[in-house]
Amino acid sequence: MHHFRYDEAGVLCAEGVPLPVIARAVGTPVYVYAAATLRRHYRVFRDALHGLDSLIAYSLKANPNLSVLRLLADLGAGADVVSGGELDRAQRVGIPPERIVFSGVGKTESEIGEAVAADILQFNVESVAELAVINRVAGQAGRRAPIAFRVNPDVTAGGHAKIATGHRSTKFGVPIDRARELYARARAMPGITVTGIDVHIGSQILDAAPFRSAFGAVVELAAQLRADGHDIRVIDVGGGIGIPYGAQPGLAPETYADVVRATLGTGTRLVFEPGRLIVGNAGMLLASVLYMKEDSERRFVILDAAMNDLLRPTLYGARHQPVVVQRPDGQADHRTCDLVGPVCESGDIFAEDVLLPPLAAGDLVAFGTAGAYGAVMASEYNSRPLVPEVMVSGERFGVIRRRPTREESLALEEPFSVEADAVEGSP
């Protein structure tokens, strides 16, 4: 459920704010988030987990905007971070370190040092090489770092090959059949304390069966590790619960929670890392029509938003449901069109063969389920400014990340003069 609805005049609103009001105030393209949806989705997931000793560690990579994080922190969320920058964001909004887990295959030595100093709940370790660095950094600081190996159960799941992370050939995790050997090695390190097991098999998973298989393998491993003398106190089960995209149904949190109870039981502290589940349908990308191009074989609606603003359709073939912001009066003659952006790439396409009512320059179009992996993946390709973000609460709204000016974007660059003979001469 989300809080984007048409009012009696046929105007699409975010909670109590008509989207044209935001477009006039902020310009387009712009991301718009509904605070009520963020709250509701967090609470629905929390309530589905009732009776479990659980920590909901929101996955910052989905949407790390400070205002989004602060709202979730106020609800009690922890954080799943994959970089020093994300760790800093989590700390800035007041998420306690004992509610932070650090994931990712490429943690740098300086990032590990930051997390050790912060005294986070757990490092989710993805390789022996990483384990050695954590051990060294923690030892130099006179500390012991709490770790869990991210085990790879060789379970294929996820809405696209590029977001499937649990099968044997991915870069993520360590083979589950080597886990006992690796945990024994970790126990012998003076800068390491073994605390748990981590698993994450992919994103946008719509079937409960892969979760059941992965969790069953983890339970078996936990029993083996405890028999080996390891104090396994935490099982981090990652995220990946599929959500609705347009007419495509998601996996109900209650169904997922039933699988958790049936496989993992209630005797261990469980860490969950939802991201898209909470923020995906809390956001829309609002764009304006620039041109109608109808003098070719296809009918194109050219928007001011582009692939650099919302990369997922180009990167994953993702489908974000487009809707017109102003419903037409009466029975408009819908026509098939392609929604595209202005970037000089053939892949700059949001949707093809979409039935929409007549559109003209200046009309507004919104793309649904854009709250996750939208603004956070944006770039300045074609020297286009980063897209701004707006939060709506009731009948109020505010800019939570503004559109940078050209001067601000250029300020990061430093001039470098190369003399002609240096260019033409020897190396």
Radius of gyration computed on alpha carbons: 24 Å
Q: CATH homologous superfamily name of the largest domain? A: Alanine racemase
**SS element count, helices:** 13
| Proportion of helical residues | 25-40%
- Percent strand: 15-25%
Termini Cα gap: 61 Å
Number of strands: 21
- What name is given to the CATH topology of the largest domain? TIM Barrel
Mean pLDDT: 93
Secondary-structure class: alpha/beta
Per CATH, the class of the largest domain reads Alpha Beta
How many distinct folded domains?
Answer: 2
CATH architectural arrangement of the largest domain: Alpha-Beta Barrel
Any low-confidence stretches, pLDDT <50, length ≥5? 159-167
Main sheet: strands, sense, barrel: 9 strands, mixed
Shape: globular
Brief write-up:
This protein folds into 2 domains: 4-32 and 280-410, Lyase, Ornithine Decarboxylase, Chain A, domain 1 (Beta Barrel), CATH 2.40.37; 35-277, TIM Barrel (Alpha-Beta Barrel), CATH 3.20.20.10. Strands 4, 14, 15, 16, 17, 18, 19, 20 and 21 form a 9-stranded mixed beta sheet that branches. Strands 5-6-7-8-9-11-12-13 form an 8-stranded parallel beta barrel. The protein is built from 13 helices and 21 strands.
